[in-house]
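We were asked to recover a plausible sequence for a given structure. The inputs and outputs are reproduced exactly as logged, with field labels preserved.

PROBLEM: sequence recovery
POSITIONS: 227
GIVEN STRUCTURE:
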């Protein structure tokens, strides 16, 4: 399996590459920015995993991931955001987002999961994982989440969730529906403004509330229907 790491700081990027080569049998290369990554893609026939900074000098991880996915359709993405792990408000099992300090075992496990994925498996993220990443990174724009035939949008402004919509729902209900999809494909467009404001709560409050409500519903004992 071929991995590409995109990191602007060689003092951090090289140890990541060394960890991959030391603890896996995969090929791994390191480049410093988006331009170098696209040049690398032009010289290679395959790339299975892209591990990239989410945002840094000359790096836009979301845009780069989208561009390389067009070249390598089976590409799996892993992100290195600029915020610290201590800033996360929700712990996500099997996350594909690795803030500093990076847990090496978690990263190696994510690489192993990518290796074990069937051919042509879509690049799936947990909806809560990608939403928390975009909010903590203070992203603005539109995030599209897709689950099979279902699709929805979350509109952000400087990391605040302003509006959400699915085919049938708007606002908080739409956001809850998308979170219930669990694993989704996603796309991000920076230059889209929220068409209206239907959500006023802080992003962490509303996400924690929705996740808590979902856990409560799932923990309710089932009742047998009497004959």
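RECOVERED SEQUENCE:
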């Amino acid at each position: 399996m071929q991995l590409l790491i995109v990191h602007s700081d060689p003092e951090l990027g090289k140890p990541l590459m060394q960890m991959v080569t030391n603890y896996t049998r995969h090929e791994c290369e390191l480049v410093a920015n988006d331009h170098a990554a696209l040049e690398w893609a032009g010289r290679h026939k395959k790339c299975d995993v892209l591990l990239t900074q989410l945002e840094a000098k000359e790096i836009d991880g979301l845009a780069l991931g989208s561009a390389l996915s067009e070249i390598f359709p089976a590409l799996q993405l892993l992100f290195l955001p600029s915020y610290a792990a201590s800033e996360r408000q929700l712990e996500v099992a099997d996350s594909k987002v690795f803030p500093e300090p990076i847990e090496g075992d978690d990263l190696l496990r994510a690489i192993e999961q990518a290796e074990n994925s069937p051919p042509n498996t879509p690049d799936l993220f947990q909806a809560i994982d990608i939403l928390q990443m975009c909010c903590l990174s203070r992203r603005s724009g539109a995030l599209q989440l897709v689950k099979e035939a279902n699709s929805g949008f979350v509109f952000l402004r400087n990391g605040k969730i302003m509006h959400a919509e699915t085919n049938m729902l708007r606002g908080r209900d739409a956001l809850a529906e998308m979170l219930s999809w669990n694993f989704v494909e996603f796309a991000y467009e920076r230059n889209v403004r929220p068409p209206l404001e239907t959500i006023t709560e802080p992003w962490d409050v509303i996400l924690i509330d929705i996740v808590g409500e979902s856990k409560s519903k799932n923990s309710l004992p089932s009742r047998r229907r009497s004959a």
